[in-house]
Amino acid sequence: MRIQVNGTSLFADVEGPGLVPDGDTMREKPTLLLLHGGPGHDHSIFKPAYGRLADLAQIVYVDQRGNGRSQDSDPATWNLDQWADDIPALCDALGITKPIVLGWSFGGIVAMHYAGRHPDHPARLILQSTMARMDVDLVVEGFRTEAGEAAALAAKAFLTEGTPETFAAFGRLCAPAYSPDPAFPSTEDVHAMLRMVPNPELTMRFLSQERFDLRPGLAAIRCPTLVVAGSRDPITPLTMADEIMAALPVGSRLEVFDKSGHFIPDTEGERFFALLRSFIV
């Protein structure tokens, strides 16, 4: 479906009912709003794996402004403030109150900024494999550790130049290091991921030019917050999760997955989804 939000049309999809029979009445389930990575990608990264949570919560998938099927907007509005402010506006349009918001990678950046700007809006916050600030040196070192010097140099070139050539080299040399599992991503997986980026220009521009630091705003977050990180993640290294935790209010929770990189659901899925289930309820 398409929803009018802040002067543009966002694509959203819904999985599972919001109301379910409970004896003689209807019980309202919580809403889990999923924010994808990128930017420049879409919500398909969550499917079908996250659908296993539909018995606990109604799941709302969204292609964020400028991403996926929601590209038809003014590029001048493709910024963190606007992406963050689109979330409560989308919820208003759909009649959603107190969502549980999960942001993965770039989606986690947006989720943090949203929760800091609108602290009374979310019921809970899940920050999966993400960063509160862009630190090129930390990312380059992450790829050096997981994939060697050639990958480190490719990451630095892409994150500072952001050209089609450096993007292609990043995909070839760095994307395989997103997961320590030798079965994923394969060369075919990497090529498929690059072909599936709906807005590569946004990806290149954001990652090579945007320099943000959200840590000062994290203290304003009021809802229960879960931070999830893979200890072998090169693009959002574990150090970045520690930075997030240091800036969040006391009582926030960090869960580290020692066998995982950036794709925790693919390497330690059973533990990961059990953790999400316990946090949602």
Automatic annotation (TrEMBL):
GO terms of molecular function: aminopeptidase activity
A single GO BP: proteolysis
Ranges for domain AB hydrolase-1: 30-266
Membrane-crossing segments per the record: none
Gene3D superfamilies xrefs: alpha/beta hydrolase
Highest taxon of source: Bacteria
Keywords: Hydrolase
Ion transport found in the keyword field: no
SUPFAM superfamilies: alpha/beta-Hydrolases
GO-annotated cellular components: membrane
Annotated PANTHER family: AB HYDROLASE SUPERFAMILY PROTEIN YCLE (PTHR43798:SF31), MONOACYLGLYCEROL LIPASE (PTHR43798)
Family named by the database record: Belongs to the peptidase S33 family.
Name used for this protein in its record: Alpha/beta hydrolase
Originating organism: Nonomuraea cypriaca
